[in-house]
Amino acid sequence: MIALVTGASRGIGRAIALRLALDGAAVAINYRTQKEAAQSVVESILNAGGRACAIQADTGDADQVKQLFEQAENRLGPIGILVNNAGILHRGTLDTYDPGVMSAMLKTNVDSVIHCTRAAAVNMRKNSDGRIVNISSIAARGTAAPGTTWYAPTKAAVESLTRRFALELGPAGIRVNAVAPGFILTDMVDPANRDEVIKTMAAKAVLGRAGVPEDIAGAVAFLVSDQARFITGQILTVDGGRTDFLSH
Q: Rounded CA gap, 183 and 207, in Å?
């Protein structure tokens, strides 16, 4: 199986790419700016005996997505697994609304899911098979985390699109699901207060710890596997049992 993971140079995307490769997939590593980091993921896969390549593209741009899929399929083969992981978070509140920032998040978090899913569906329909996983966030459901007021609706859109695409693509044998992570510990956490952040976020989960990228990678691996062959249109929450939902 050939997989394409967007935003796979670091963090959650990197963990997903490595896990899919471990499970036997050839993986196209998409990145926008982090070329060296993306190549490092490729080298890790190659060193383990797998197949991989790194391809630069802004997945919020339809023309670049078209080229991304053409390059991936020329180098590895038809894409059978798509993981829409690329995303950005700009913090903001009602009082600090910035249309430019909102537009940027919509482009990366929502438009990229649309462009990549449309591109992937072409060959998936021909093969009557395909597995698509979108990476959402528990912010989509309305958590008490401050500063995510404008990020949240972009992820809510991802969850809505997940269900709509599952409806449209299901008759062609294509499954579409999403994973909604809670707090996940990556290198984007400020080292200056890393320990404090871990302690605070661990206290918000009933399992008593912060999540790590491999937790999300495991959920994605399940959803694209044959074990999940009768699952589509679902949102799998992976958050350690967060206790701070506004509706709690």
A: 13
Is 205 a domain residue?
no
Q: What is the pLDDT of residue 194?
A: 86
Q: Which of the four pLDDT bands, split at 50, 70 and 90, describes residue 191?
A: confident
User: pTM for the complete prediction?
Assistant: 0.95
244 domain residue, yes or no: no
Active-site pick, 31, 69, 150, 151: 151
Active site (annotated) includes residue 31:
no
User: Half-sphere exposure of 108 toward its Cβ, with a 13 Å CA cutoff?
Assistant: 18
What CATH number does residue 137 fall under?
A: 3.40.50.720
- CA–CA distance, 61 with 144 (Å, rounded to integer): 32
Q: Residue 178's closest CA among 130, 146, 144, 135?
A: 135
How many domains is the chain built from? 1
Whether 240 is in a domain gets the answer no
